[in-house]
Amino acid sequence: MLDSLITNKTRLKLLLKFFLNSETTSYLRNLEGEFGESTNSIRLELNRFEKAGLLNSNFAGNKKYFKANANHPLYEEINSILKKTIGIDKIVEQVTSKVGDLQEAYLIGDLAKGTDSEIIDLLLIGNNIDKVYVSQLSIKVETHINRKIRFLIVQFEEKDKYLTNNNALCIWKG
Questions:
Q1: How far apart are the C-alpha atoms of 128 and 101, rounded to whole Å?
Q2: Cα torsion for 45, 72, 145, 142, to the nearest 10°?
Q3: Over the range 52-64, which residues count as b (16 or more CB within 10 Å of their CB) and which as e?
Q4: Of 39, 134, 149, 169, which has the fewest beta carbons less than 10 angstroms from its beta carbon?
Q5: CA 11, 24, 78, 141 torsion: positive or negative?
Q6: Which of 31, 25, 30, 90 is nearest to 56 (CA)?
Q7: Rounded distance between C-alpha atoms, residue 56 and residue 135, angstroms
């Protein structure tokens, strides 16, 4: 849907990369490898975002790292639009209402890293979560958002070992 509004593919990839998860940082050559696009097109868009104040940058050695400016007045709006486009808002609304003792929900996987994906990976943390209900709900939501949902349910005590290596983005806390 966003690709019909934002026709520049590089710009759209950068929005997803930096504005879905405010903790994401990257540098030009890394983005080139990830996006499979020329450094020139990526550099032009990075410069535009930085000039508009949407991205902050800093140098570490000879690399210029970029990160979303979470203090920018439009950051929350852009983040919200991206979450709605991906369907995270619908998932959270449905899942948190009736699944059991859900304590936290995290987006993990490619989307948490800021890479667009047809698969939404969720980590649900809590006790006595109704797996059958979550599975049925996932199937229903998938038809509305045109993305596949994978979920992993863990006990609260085990959450740290799953959060450490997954670039987890908290999307809900009870």
A1: 6
A2: 110
A3: eebbbeeeeeeee
A4: 39
A5: positive
A6: 25
A7: 40
Residues 128, 157: contact at Cβ < 8 Å?
Answer: no
What pLDDT does 41 receive? 93
DSSP string, the chain: -HHHH---HHHHHHHHHHHSSTT-EEEHHHHHHHHTS-HHHHHHHHHHHHHTTSEEEEEETTEEEEEE-TTSTTHHHHHHHHHHHHTHHHHHHHHHHHSSEEEEEEEESHHHHT---SEEEEEEEEES--HHHHHHHHHHHHHHHTSEEEEEEE-GGGHHHHHTTTT-EEEEE-
Contact 151, 134 (CB under 8 A): yes
User: pTM score, two decimals?
Assistant: 0.64
Which pLDDT does position 61 carry in this prediction? 93
Give the range with max mean pLDDT: 28-37, 53-62, 89-98, 145-154: 53-62
> pLDDT tens for residues 113-133?
878 888 989 999 988 888 888
